[in-house]
């Protein structure tokens, strides 16, 4: 009879060991000190900083490499000035419609539609209303860049998803779409 | 003569009770199907305008800044026709800044109340168009949604009746067991009364003892047990450190199913740094606010079968976002009081392996779903792939590298293809299985 108990015990142990995976917790690790990084990892917690986070704001006044200051303000006047005066710094060899189309599809088409007619998926599903057709609005590449940078009305700023150069690529693509509408 | 059981026996009473309780549970279940309330009729056309045409105009021109109920960039427009003189409204819509400049006190106050944001002028709208829009905005607000609270009650009720059914089943089971015992006892009594002998188990050696005496069988079983034990032990040890299926509870319930699936937002809209950097990036809350500044309520869709939680639940999660980012819904302004969201990291490679998102997403053009699974169907995000080395290497061996149109490296690609004797180069042919590529 003892053997029966032993067998039952073995079966139970193996069942417990294989079936109990708690999906809300990470699994055990061999030698965790080889898994966990000594330096700070992206988004990690760190006691080295006062707010306990690795992700810190850049020092005040610092600008990213390759950044050129944008002088138009986020106001109605700034918008009008940008519309009238701002011109793309990209020359014809740098304008890459393929790249612009790719970025437009990711960041703009969801509302503005693949053709720029204001009939993106979110507009069709009535999550966003009143998205204009590019043709109906008086826009220039400068005003498109300005709105991408600061946002306008219900549209938010996309400056942290797209670099300045990428925003210009998209602005060129938007003007191309507008001319085709 | 046959012996008949007692008419008022215990088992009969039990059966009667069971039948009674079951009939009640069925009756209470049937009530759930009562029809939901009818929808309130839309208001008859008010005044001169046509609300249907007005709705079209409103949705295409006004709705980017105005909502019917609740403040957006501009004020709520329901009932605006009663607040202002019609002639004044024509002037305002045609060119509001002129009206403000003329020193009209109402216009100046309105401008100041709305953070000095100038409304786009609409000189193209005729007075009739504006009347149509006013007719649309004058329609009374729809009665509070009858279906939603009702739906919630139904859910709770069906939960209660589920419990009821389960309870009834348990009761049935108990009754059956009791009946079995009773029947057995009665049968034995009948047998004893009629003088029938119930066959007893013969007392030869049991199967177990026979087995234990056969040494060969014991040996074979032991070997089998050791082998299966070893198999399971190996399986158990091999999954240590593998987090496939890891599905932690996040501080804000974010449904990829709604955002990426139903609404079809590109992965890279939010995870924009996957294109250009090592990490895919957890979107900062301003990216959420790009849309949720406008979308403050979960509205579901016409076929809201994909919704797994109630409307209130989703609205509560949007409110959590507002609290974290410090957005005041009523004034449409940031309060400046923010608190960071502590997302739980799911995909985490060990420190001793290097992985770069941009290399895979931008250079190789690998779909996000290839490694992360059908995320657009996940209500709760989880780790889809094992993220083991064998899994990485397997993909490197199978994935062909796009060399077309890359003339700069054409010579080296041709030579590599010749060296390995293949038509199409895989990532492994390009050195994708070298140790130092990922471990250094």
Automatic annotation (TrEMBL), chain A:
In this chain the Cytochrome c domain maps to 95-178
Q: Which residues, if any, are the signal sequence? A: 1-17
Q: Which Pfam families match?
A: Cytochrome_CBB3
Q: Does the keyword Heme apply?
A: yes
* GO molecular function ontology, one term from the record: electron transfer activity
Q: Which InterPro entries match?
A: Cyt_c-like_dom, Cyt_c-like_dom_sf
Q: Please, which domain of life does this record's source organism belong to? A: Bacteria
Q: Which UniProt keywords apply?
A: Heme, Iron, Metal-binding, Signal
What is the protein name stated in its UniProt record?
Answer: Cytochrome c, mono-and diheme variants family
Record organism? Flavobacterium beibuense
From TrEMBL, chain B:
Q: Which InterPro entries match?
A: Cyt_c-like_dom, Cyt_c-like_dom_sf, Cyt_c_III_dom, Multihaem_cyt_sf
Entry superkingdom: Bacteria
Q: Hey, what's the signal peptide range on this chain?
A: 1-30
Which Gene3D superfamilies does the record cross-reference, listed alphabetically? Cytochrome c-like domain (1.10.760.10), Cytochrome C3 (3.90.10.10)
Keyword Oxidoreductase part of the UniProt annotation: no
Please give one Gene Ontology molecular function term for this protein.
metal ion binding
Record domain Cytochrome c: where:
49-141
Q: Name one Pfam family in it.
A: Cytochrom_CIII
Keywords for the protein's UniProt record, in alphabetical order: Electron transport, Heme, Iron, Membrane, Metal-binding, Signal, Transmembrane, Transmembrane helix, Transport
TM region positions: 164-183, 216-237
Is Nuclease one of the keywords? no
Under which name does UniProt file this protein? Cytochrome c family protein
Organism whose genome encodes this protein: Flavobacterium beibuense
